[in-house]
Amino acid sequence: MSHGTNGTILRVDLTAGSISTESFDDGFYRRYPGGKALAAYHLLRELRPGVDPLGPENLLVLATGLLTGAPISTATRFNAIARSPLTGGFGESEAGGYWGPELKMAGLDAILVTGRSPDPVYLWVKDGVAEIRDARLLWGQDPPTVQAAIREELGDRLVRVLQIGRAGENRVRYAMLMNELRHYNGRTGMGAVMGSKNLRAVAVRGSRRYGDLARDPGALAELGRRLAKQIPEHPQAWDLRTKGTPGLTDAMNAGGILPTRNFRQGAFERVDEIDFAAYLALRSGTRSCYACAVRCKPEMAFSDRHTVTDTYDGPEYEAVAGFGSDCAIGDLQAVARANELCNELGLDVISTAGTIAFAMECFEHGLIGPGDTDGLELRFGNAEAVLEIVPRIADRSGFGELLAQGSRLAAEAIGGDAPSFAMHVKGQELPMHEPRGKVGVGLGYATNEAGADHLVGFHDPLFVKPDSVPFRSVADLGITEPTGALDLGEKKVRIWHTSERWNSAEKVLGLCFFGPVPRSLIQVADVVAAVRAATGWDMTADELLEVGERAVNMARVFNVREGFTRADDRLPDRLFSPLENGALAGTAIPRDDFERALTNLYLLKGWDPQTGIPTEARLRELGLEWTADTPVAGGAVAGG
Amino acid sequence: MEVHLGGHLAFYDPKKRSRFEVHLDAETPLLEVIRMLGVPEAEIAVAAVNRAVVTLAEARVGDADRLDLYPPMSGGARR
Which residues contact A475 (CB under 8 A, 6 or more apart)? Predict the structure, then answer.
């Protein structure tokens, strides 16, 4: 018998209306323990290359991590994974909250959804028993209404509801999923995939406890108690609890790395109107995810020039910078309303803001005009235009239809210089972290199989000072040499390689980026101890890194099957040009250094430096020999 | 002097204050002020005097200045 997991997944075919379960043994789970690894395994096994991401054949996997639901802080996450309609490649997005733990307590490690229902439906899972239910009356309703209606219909107010919004129903390429209205699988358009299946929601309820699954529930509970006591005393946890991610805005601006005017600039002249002091004046409270002592989620409610309620998550840093500095809007109330609209409509905040910033630059360069934008003066700083265009994106109406495709496809349609204004990697818009001041993060943007993502590895500024708390915490991962934030040499590439594998392992385990090292609320030894208590496995940190690396390689193989090569591991040209202002004015990423770093990273990963394709040797080392004969154009997937 | 401790640096102030004032009798090396504030130097990534980024080891500050100190900036939430 396996421990730490249920050993069971649920399969749902919405075309056939069929439901079944499948079980796996302990050996399987040790290689693919959960989350990204478990989902990638099924995607590679069951999805043939080239399927329409929004067609019934696409497979949507909702997978808990190995530790999701364990009674330790930050063990809350689950993954949504499918072929992405935004990138055409491996799509993935995680969320915390309560839904993932509840699924684990309901006796399932993952739900695999394929097909398309003829009519809108929702899925109801209770203690391992699932049922497809009519959602025709829920289609088109706002998320709070849907959540309340499902709970009323099922007669249980504690049912946890994962759902899409209008954007997902309308298959906007960057539509998101939300659970409990406040926690979001924002990236790569997983909401559009769910909407394409006519699946509005997945409601779950479970009566198990994680302790029932654990090999040593006493040790796990003791670890959870110790962490719950330690975490509030940690400086980083204090920061997350008292300020949360919006506390980053001031620092980013001072450091010259606050994306401003579509990444042209690194400092915003109206930062005082969106910084943390401004934020605090509007914040109404903070909330937590399941069993987490960090409590970092902000909540905002006000009625003034704009009205915002506390129904959804308050704007995180990504929204503050995305709709604020990057769209040049020095008005936090408008930013908060734009954030609320995205949540209400089910849009990814990062891609929505990034696509609008792109359109603003096109407008200012005369590539589009009021005749294209339904009369909107879509210039930098025009908050009212942003608030007008967001619902049109969700509804794919008017100019919103073009922006609903994302900046890459919109740029191709607009033509001229527009592609040079589209700040994306593989079609996914850049998060609000400036690679010209965090070059390792840029390497991660470029190479990540799901496109630009800021949670793929550790951020460069954490590794500059050897005596800092973050740096000292990663010695247990073998990172012992500090290096500058702008360095792209061998040391940085080694750090990135390790950090990418570690962060991938977090996605497999279901741990939040804010818990383990280098945030260091949770030490490497604590993670190892948690896995041991949950499973009985004597899994070392090295094996955890390998688990993470295996998941990355599966995602890479998936992309290779879809035709991706080294040429897709690129950054927008703008990042190789100087920042226009701020503390790093004049700084650009040296292109030759970047290409050399990319080659060195491939070599560390065991990938062909010319193509970026995993070698057969590396796949065999990782136990992925079953992927090595995956047919791709020109031969098998691995170069040998 | 107006002091702003960004991010988790305010944790090191005995009263956990992010913004407060201190009095300096004369122009003082920034490192000395940082030691006086009790903020570990290793945790400071960016220091700005009157909003201009400075080098910790070289800067000096006076009573009329504004000092902003920030820790290394990592990722935000939301995926």
Answer: none
Q: How confident is the model over A390-406, as a mean pLDDT?
A: 98
Q: What type of residue is A281?
A: A
A188 touches B: beta carbon within 8 Å: no
Q: Is A433 on the interface with B (CB under 8 A)?
A: yes
Between β-strands B2-5 and B66-70, what pairing exists: parallel, antiparallel or unpaired?
A: parallel
Cβ-Cβ pairs closer than 8 A, A with B, add up to 125
**Angstrom distance (rounded) from CA A241 to CA A243:** 6
CA distance A485 to chain B (A): 10
Residues paired with residue A307 on neighbouring β-strands, in sequence order: A303
Residue A255 to residue B53, Cβ atoms within 8 A: yes
Name beta bridge partners: A297.
Answer: A287
Nearest CB among B18, B43, B53 relative to A583 is that of B53
d(CA A257, CA A249): 10
Q: Which of A238, A296, A583 sits opposite B11 (nearest CB)?
A: A238
Find residue A134's DSSP bridge partners.
A121
Interface check B6 vs A, CB under 8 A = yes
Q: Do A432 and B11 touch (CB under 8 A)?
A: no
Q: In the 8-state DSSP scheme, what is residue A101?
A: H
The interface predicted TM-score (ipTM) is 0.93
Inter-residue contact A319 to A353 (CB < 8 Å): yes
Residue A640: pLDDT band with limits 50, 70, 90: very low
φ, ψ of residue A202 to 5 degrees: the values are: -125, 115
Compute the radius of gyration of chain B from its Cα atoms.
13
pTM exceeds 0.90 for this model: yes
Q: Which residues on B lie below 8 Å from A250 (Cβ)?
A: 4, 6, 68, 70
pLDDT at A639: 55
Distance from A11 to chain B by nearest Cα, in Å?
Answer: 25
Give pLDDT, residue A633. Answer: 56
> Measured in whole angstroms, how far is the alpha carbon of residue A277 from the centre of its chain?
27
- Quote the CA–CA distance of A346 and A494 in Å, as a whole number: 38
**How does DSSP classify residue A538?**
-
The answer to whether the bond into A143 is cis (omega within 30° of 0) is no
Secondary structure percentages of chain B, helix, strand, coil, to 5: 20, 30, 50
Q: What is the pLDDT of residues A52-81, one digit of tens each?
A: 999 999 999 999 999 999 999 999 999 999
Contact assignment for B79 to A95 by CB distance below 8 Å: yes
Residue A141 at interface with chain B, using a CB cutoff of 8 Å:
no
Q: How far apart are CA A469 and CA A464, in angstroms?
A: 11
CA–CA dist A332, A324 (Å, integer): 7
Tell me how far apart the alpha carbons of residues A70 and A60 are, in angstroms, rounded to a whole number: 24
| Cβ–Cβ under 8 Å, residues A159 and A239 | no
CA-nearest residue of chain A to B53?
A583
Type of residue numbered B22: V
Query: How far away is chain B from the Cα of A247, in angstroms, using its nearest Cα?
Result: 6
Instruction: Please answer yes or no on whether B51 and A242 come within 8 Å at the CB atom.
Output: no
Tell me which residue of A398, A451, A456 sits closest to A564, measured CA to CA.
Answer: A451
Q: Does A636 touch chain B (CB under 8 A)?
A: no
* A461: nearest CB among B11, B40, B45: B45
Query: Where do we find the tokens 């080659």?
Result: A599
Which among A362, A621, A361, A567 is positioned nearest to A446, based on CA atoms?
A: A567
Mutation pick from A76, A465, A495, A520 vs chain B, by most beta carbons of B within 10 Å, is: A465
Question: Is residue A231 very low, low, confident or very high in pLDDT (cuts 50, 70, 90)?
Answer: very high
Question: H/E element holding B68?
Answer: strand B66-70
Task: Measure the N-to-C terminal CA separation of chain A; round to a whole number of Å.
Answer: 37
Render pLDDT for B56-68 as a digit per residue (tens, 0 to 9): 999 999 999 999 9
